[in-house]
Amino acid sequence: MRLRTLQFQLSALVLAFGLLAIALSALRQYRRDVSVRLEQMRLTAYQEGTRMASLAQHFFRRRLQNSTDLALSYVTVQPDLRLGVICNGDDQVLYATQKRWRGSLLWDCPLAVTPHLISDIRQTFEGVLSEDADAGVLVAVFPFRDVASGMKKGLVILEYDLHSALAAAASKAWNESAALGLLLLGGCLLLWSLLQKLVAERVSQIVEQTRQIGADKEVPAPIPGNDELAEISRGIDEAALRLRASEWRFRQVAASMRDIFWVAPAAPAAAIYVNEAYERLFLKPAHRLRLNRWDWLRSVVREDRRAVLEMVRALRSAPGELELEFRIHCAEGLRWLGCRGFSFRHGEDDERRLQVAGVTADITNRKEMQKRLLQAAENERRRIGQDLHDDVCQRLAAAQLKSGVLQSALRREQHARAELAGEVARELSEATELARAYARGMAPVAMRAEEMAEALDDLKKFIERAFSISCRVNCEDTSDTLNTEDAAQVFRIAQELTANAAKHAGASWISVSLTKGDDGLRLEVAHDGACFDPNLRAHAKGMGLHMVRQRVDALGGSLAFHARHAADGGTIAVCELPFAHGKDTRHHIA
Fold it and tell me: If DSSP states are collapsed to H, E and C, what string results for 332-392?
């Protein structure tokens, strides 16, 4: 039997209040009965004392000893009387309800009287009722004139037991309380039965009705009746129908989605909900998530698992939205997935863990398109660079040569414009070198992974010559980690970041560093110029930073800008690029 049910609590509450009421009533009744019995005992003692005193005086005058005995015997029928005596003026007991005290002195009898009290009564010749609460006795002392002994004052003394009155009152109160308690117990049992029939069983049906909601089972029919419980049951049934309709619409939408829609409940042991797209992309049955909610993580490429777990951990810690791109293994090879996750609290309990949900889409085609666009842009840059080198640079070189010939001819003729022709030749020479530098930047000769250091060194020379800024380069050997295509992308990222720093930051020096770590490459471009504000650059019209981010995304890396904690200030751009287990094995897309 459950002790926390409403049925038990109501019955126990009624029983407790009933017992309390019975106890209070019994206490009041006991006090009232005690008061009534004591008052009756006082009245009886007064009446019997005065009656026996008048009879004793009459019988003593006429010397009717037998009549005195008879009158005293009538007093003994009183249940509360402990001892009654009649003594003469010499304090000798002549008559007693207990014969053993006849003939003895008054002071030898077990009566609660004192010589002082007896002396006062004989002097005043007035009867007295004396109570001794500690001893539990009531004594009635009434005087009379003993004519036979020379008009001395005799006494009638009746002693009553107060404890008997208290015991009788307590017995009556207990008997009445026991009867009321049995009646109350019967009423509580009846209430228990009524609650079991009218409330508990119907509440159990309502609970079962609510448990079937959302359990893919038929919801039981509402309980019959017109009371409040029946109204609640009908309301639950209507809500269940609306929920079923809403759930059906949701399932239709989720089933028709090409992207994965998933919900991870807050409870660690609860299974993840996924739609049908999960099985199409991960090629795994969805029911395996009920046994192991992390079963999907085995398909994620090992190098991307850390980022995925960090995203889930961040969403679990605080409400918000995050986006992440990662790769999974499938039958065709590797596929790229883009996940947009968000977290929220279920209810108003701030201590409860957050629920996490999100949409995961297959972005393999988009990644392939981005890579093709970047490759097309790279090819176009190479073509333009080649055109600069093969056409523009050659034309400038020819013009420079002709200007030199013209300068020589004008000098021979001592023409005043000979120096001007020389200046034109020098400027054409500088323009030729600058155009060749641009051509090498757009189409570098050395773009294989093992020649990355040489390409970055050419970039350093171009920055120093074109912008008159000191540039330092540190490049580790990356030939075992980069293929030719990725090497070109890494170079373009370094080139764009360096050019942006030279053009817009007002720096006096620029540092480029390409190093290898345990998980990938780390490209750092630092300078002492103005700090970079990504919020302002987000609204800029230029395509430089946008192209950099596209290249970083295509390589599966990350790009972040930080302020330099140094006296000369500045900014450091950090680009981290993961790599696989060897050359020409990264980012193959099915």
Answer: CEEEEEEEEEEEECCCCCCCCCCEEEEEEEECHHHHHHHHHHHHHHHHHHHHHHHHHHHHH
- 142, with CB counted inside 10 A (0-12, 13-18, 19+), is buried
Rounded Cα distance, 543 and 329, in Å = 33
**Do residues 399 and 471 share a domain?**
no
Residue type, 449: A
Query: For 134-256, where are the alpha helices, taking DSSP H only?
Result: 162-195, 201-211, 228-256
Q: Are residues 520 and 458 in the same domain?
A: yes
Instruction: Tell me which DSSP letter residue 92 carries.
Output: B
Q: Which residue in 511, 476, 479 sits closest to 494, CA to CA? A: 511
In angstroms, how far is CA 509 from the centroid of its own chain? 53
Do 463 and 393 fall into the same domain? Answer: no
CA distances to 74, 157, 290, 313, 315 from 59, in Å: 15, 16, 110, 113, 112
Contacts of 555 (CB under 8 A, 6+ apart): 486, 489, 490, 577, 586, 587
Q: How many domains does the chain have?
A: 5
Distance CA 181, CA 189 (A): 12
CATH of the domain at 313: 3.30.450.20
pLDDT of residue 193: 87
Report the C-alpha gap between 140 and 127 in whole angstroms: 7
Determine the pLDDT at residue 176.
87
pLDDT < 50 regions, the chain: 349-350, 446, 536-541, 580-590
Q: Which two tokens stand for residue 451?
A: 């020649």
Q: Are residues 246 and 367 in the same domain?
A: no
Q: Are 568 and 521 in contact (CB under 8 A)?
A: no
Residue 174: alpha-carbon gap to chain centroid:
54
Task: Tell me which amino acid residue 531 is.
Answer: C
Pull the structure tokens for residue 400: 């420079």
Q: Does 425 share its domain with 523?
A: no
What pLDDT is recorded for position 232? 87
Choosing from 426, 443, 460, the residue where a domain stops is 443
Q: CA–CA separation, 15 vs 544, rounded Å?
A: 83
* CA 375 to centroid of chain Cα atoms: 51
Range of the domain at 218: 212-256
Q: What φ, ψ does residue 248 adopt, rounded to 5°?
A: -65, -45
Confidence (pLDDT) at 145: 86
- Tell me, yes or no, whether 457 and 423 share the same domain: no
Q: Is the pTM of this model over 0.70?
A: no
Could you give the CA distance from residue 80 to residue 85 in angstroms, rounded to a whole number? 15
